[in-house]
Amino acid sequence: MDSFSHPEFASHERVLFIADEQTRLRAIIAIHSTQRGPAIGGCRMWPYQSQEAALSDALRLSRGMTYKNALAGIDSGGGKSVIIGNPVIDKTQALLKAMGKAINDLGGLYIAAEDSGTSPHDMSIMAESTPFVAGLDHANGSGDPSPSTAHGVYLSICEAVHFRLGKAGVGGLRVHVQGLGKVGFALAEMLAASGAIVVGSDIKPENCRIAERELSIETTSNDSLFNQACDVFAPCAMGGVLNQQSIPNLRTSIVAGAANNQLLTQHDHVLLHEAGILYCPDYLINAGGVIEVYRRRHGDSDDAIAKSIGEIAPRLRSILEEANQRAAPPEKIARERADTILRSDRQNRSEPWAA
Ligand code: NAD
């Protein structure tokens, strides 16, 4: 297939394929836009079934970062990288350093942070080859951004609950969290502490055991959460979970979670809207982590970071209100707002950031 006609290609500025024979690194770095600044976005490691699946993921994720960063008011563009491999068995120090070198060769056009399958410790190893990584685990690093992501999602869930169900807080509500990894676990912890009845799922049984033991929540290691009744369904695992097959089975009032690219296709948010389910756009509500990474890198204080993350829920509220007034899906309004920000940037910034 011609790369420029790939279904997920959206005028990405650069797409880099990296192969390093010595370390067996196979990776893709996708830079969607540097219009607002250097592209910032996670580095994911995942055992993709094919190169095509990895490319689609990188193209979609990087475009999502452009929208996320614009809506979050961050002067960063959108990028993402994916390493093809199983993080449990294929990840080595040499491989991470080779990835760091590939990022370094871009001269600062792309700044990586942790994502699914990578950790702040991995970022510190990459940082031996490049200064263009964030969220490191050592003293000067911002550490794991996942709790900040979870916090932004938690506040957004409370906002959505208030908007749709007219309730102040999640106490007594049933919330299903799909994926009990770094973000899902932290989110489940916040929800449970606020009195929600949390049910979690993870394909890794050990993650279920840990959540049961430490959070005293019910868990399951299969996909049964999709058709169980709840008030809020919070996807916190991988993308594409909201699609033609899954949406008719959902028995929830609200979908609000941390996972990137929850919608399999651009049309799926309309299916949710038609089903009467309030869908909170993922790139809007899961921006807490990138806000923390970006602001720490720019020397902002804890208070400034907390304030910025606290602005996510009011932003969601404003989008939900406009969606209500126009009888339109919230995703449509969020996209329009991001497009407006990006358009006005194009008009106002005569000089590119790197010049
Ligand atoms: P993670 O790898 O720590 O956790 C993901 C968890 O989901 C894993 O435990 C995995 O076993 C589980 N999982 C995978 N498929 C599943 C399925 N079908 N059903 C149930 N569980 C499943 O990753 P994370 O950092 O917690 O990120 C989770 C999601 O949130 C990802 O989509 C990521 O891109 C997105 N996200 C993360 C951050 C962050 O700060 N870490 C920020 C924004 C968005």
Commentary on this structure:
- With 355 residues, the protein is α/β, with parallel strands linked by helices.
- It folds into 2 domains: 14-67 and 77-126, 3-Layer(aba) Sandwich (Rossmann fold); 146-287 and 298-303 and 311-339, NAD(P)-binding Rossmann-like Domain (Rossmann fold, 3-Layer(aba) Sandwich), CATH 3.40.50.
- The chain has 12 helices and 11 strands.
- The chain has helices at residues 51-71, 93-104, 120-126, 146-165, 182-193, 205-215, 268-274, 282-285, 288-297, 302-310, 312-325, 330-348; strands at 14-20, 25-33, 39-46, 77-84, 110-114, 174-178, 197-201, 218-220, 232-235, 254-255, 278-279.
- The chain has a 6-stranded parallel sheet with strand order 8-7-6-9-10-11, sandwiched between helices.
- Helix 4 (146-165) crosses helix 5 (182-193).
- The chain is globular.
- It starts with 13 loop residues before the first strand and ends in a 7-residue tail after the last helix.
- The mean pLDDT is 93.
- The protein binds nicotinamide-adenine-dinucleotide.
Keywords:
binds nicotinamide-adenine-dinucleotide, 355 residues, Rossmann fold, 11 strands, 12 helices, alpha/beta, 2 domains, 6-stranded parallel sheet
